[in-house]
């Protein structure tokens, strides 16, 4: 009987073992609090926070601006955007998608964090009705400890 059980469960165990780390994403209850530093008057930052909360993130907002925090956390200015966040020891700069934040937390790469430099239209928080459905292509970059970066995920590119 034990052998039969093993034979029946082996395929499922093998499939689970071969899943990439990002496929096993943290659930909302497993996510650490996401701390966000932003300008109190920035609407797109507010929209990004709301987007993450709708996705299950618990968000703590500091309405003090983000430039000093970005510098303190070691993120080079070339990856700057309008808000800076910290989650699980990683910096999240700008309009990063919830999916990539979850992937980052699951994979745990050796990195400073993620960034969507600038404020690309169509990214989370920059996708309101005032943009008329426009979606510009953009990259989420993984910022490495030496300050270089590589594309982590591209959006709206063919």
Description:
- With 158 residues, the chain is α/β, with parallel strands linked by helices.
- The protein is 28% helix and 23% strand.
- It has helices at residues 2-17, 43-54, 67-72, 98-107, and strands at residues 34-38, 59-62, 83-87, 90-94, 113-116, 138-143, 149-155.
- Strands 2-1-3-4-5-6-7 form a seven-stranded mixed beta sheet.
- The longest helix is centred in the first third of the chain and has 16 residues, at 2-17.
- The protein is globular and about 40 Å long.
- It starts with a helix and ends with a strand.
- The model is unreliable at 3-24 (pLDDT under 50).
Summarize this structure as a short list of keywords or feature phrases.
158 residues, alpha/beta, seven-stranded mixed beta sheet, 4 helices, globular, disordered N terminus
């Amino acid at each position: 009987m034990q052998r039969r059980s093993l034979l029946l469960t082996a395929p499922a165990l093998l499939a689970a073992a071969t899943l990439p780390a990002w496929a096993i994403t943290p659930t909302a209850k497993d996510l650490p609090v996401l701390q966000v530093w932003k300008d109190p008057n920035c609407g797109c930052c507010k929209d990004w926070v709301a987007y993450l909360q709708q996705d299950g993130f618990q968000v703590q907002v500091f309405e003090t601006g983000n430039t000093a925090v970005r510098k303190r956390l070691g993120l080079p200015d070339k990856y700057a955007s309008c808000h800076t966040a910290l989650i699980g020891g990683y910096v999240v700069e700008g309009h990063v998608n919830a999916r990539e934040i979850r992937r980052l937390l699951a994979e745990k790469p050796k990195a400073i964090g993620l960034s969507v430099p600038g404020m690309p239209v169509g990214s989370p928080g920059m996708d309101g009705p005032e943009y008329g459905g426009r979606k510009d292509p953009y990259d989420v970059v993984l910022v490495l400890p030496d300050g270089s970066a590589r594309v982590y995920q591209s959006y709206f590119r063919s």
